Amino acid sequence: MITHRASAFAPWALLLLLLPFNTVADDLISAIQAGDRNAADRQLSEGADPNTATGDGEFAGKTALMWAAEIGDRELSRLLLDAGAEVDARNPKGGTALMYAAVNGHASVIRVLVDAGADARHEVSNGWSPLMLAAAKGHAAGARELVGRGADPDSRDVYGWTPLMRAVHNGHREMVETLIDLGADTAISDGNGVTARVIAESTGRKDLARLLETD
Length: 215
Fold this sequence. Notes:
mainly alpha, 2 domains, 12 helices
């Protein structure tokens, strides 16, 4: 009887042992979502894994650093990196913390992440990179940070489009000017004769077409 009772109890004992660690991890994510640096620091001090990630649902696999990068909190990002967060950890779709920072235009976080070793040229399966995301959203300051730290302004996605083409298509004049200033090749074609200027003309952006005139 004693043996039977002990074996029946063991799984529950194990679960109880695991609960505090899961709670700490959940609390770390919650602290970061709230931008509460003191709470995040406390959770890390209590043993929370800096590489913890959201466990399920829409955001499954999204790490603590990705959450910090998304909200644009430079100090939280540094706190996690100093605690051992993997700078280029990937979510299930291949996205990194740098991509979260780029798509939201957080130039200061981009700087922190790349200086910590993040790959500015990382691409997901469709060929999109942090720079492509910044260009598509019109975040010029973020694009400058990325190109200044190694991103290729003439990189292509699976459709043969460059960051410049994406910026033109979405009508981001400042981004178009920024990419030209950063040395983007305005004459690149997607392989079907479509250039950034052709895109500008087809979308009725004569002002952008003039910017893209080549000799």
